[in-house]
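Hi R.,

Here are the chain sequences for the assembly we discussed:
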Amino acid sequence: MKTNPRTAPQRGFHFDYLMWLFTRLSALAMYLLAIAAILAALLMSARQNMTVADLMRWAFMPNPNHVANTNIPDIEAWKGIFWQVMGILMLFFAGAHGLHGLLNVLEDYISRTWVRNFLRGLVLLVWVFMSAIGIYVILTS
Amino acid sequence: MGLKRNVGLMEGLRYQGKGPMLTYILHRIGGLGIVLFVALHILASFLSNQAWGTSAGIFINAIYEHWLFQIFIFFCALFHAINGLRIVILDLWPVLIEYQREAIWLEWFVFLPIYGIALIVIIRGGLGG
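And here is the predicted structure of the full complex:
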């Protein structure tokens, strides 16, 4: 097998560095989104009407379906454009973070250039597809 | 890319990386577990909404609502979140890397009680209250 020498890492901003940074910052963003969702839920009477498990489901994806099985009397405040935007933001950060992580793991075990390029394209397609149906689910629920 | 390491699988498993290596490998397993769960969950939610896919959606739902899967996925999510916070803090403030060992201890002190309590709750629910 013909092997190419690895190119030395570039200095400054380039794709791999930006994704390294994005992975960390999106982790913080997901923490903030989850904390915001928990605080809002507690203000919207979650303490009396929700279990911790239901609160966690809501924190990781603020979708009205996640409160449908709780004792919340009026679910209207848990719907609407604000929570849809929060859900789409969570989906964006989680999807990009997760699929880039998956790519990172795969590339640690794969050395052929064409397979790596193929996988990069495949993961990008999966990301676009899953984001599209995820946004569809958020907007229709 | 010429990425040749000459390390077999068994040799790799025998590597004595101790604490940091354990968190690294669990972080990977956790991340992959979350990707699997979230992908299944989005697919199931989408399919359940469609007239042609309702039964497939319910089938996928049943997989990740099983209490054995819950034990696995809660481990993945909680460990990945706590370990990820450590990685973010140590990477964004590199002077703190000196305290990595202490940070990993702290991480287990946070993780074990939360996971232990959740485990009791999940298993009690799984065995019928």
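The radius of gyration of chain B is 19 Å. The mean pLDDT of chain B is 86.

Let me know if anything looks off.

Best,
T.
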